[in-house]
UniProtKB/TrEMBL annotation:
Highest taxon in the source lineage: Bacteria
Organism this protein belongs to: Ramlibacter alkalitolerans
Origin organism lineage: Bacteria, Pseudomonadati, Pseudomonadota, Betaproteobacteria, Burkholderiales
Protein name: Uncharacterized protein
Amino acid sequence: MSTRKRPPTKLAIGAYGFTVSRMSEEAARKAGVFGETDLHNQDVAINFGNTDQTVANTFLHEALHGVHWVSGLEDKPLEEEFTRQGANGICELFRRNPKAMAWWLATLDPKAAREFATALSAHLAA
Ligand SMILES: [Zn+2]
């Protein structure tokens, strides 16, 4: 499975609807990043040219910047460090504990869990 297939185009964070856009290889290299979040225009730009694991981690990392922004934490000195470590930790949590995380999502929100299962099946079949 490749992350380059049908990546998401939208992301809901707090009360905001973010767009998910593609960051070119050139822009990513120039900025020295794998992705970036434009909080004021609510856009998450991802360089989908990296490995699947890097793209997945970057997507979560940028989404966490949005979560921190809607929580009022974006200007705190350690925000980037919390974001990096949080994304790394959550990626590993899901990758190493799929059954536990399925239980967690079903417990948190059964409707969201059903939508997740449907979307995941469609994504894996693509
Ligand atoms: Zn960051």
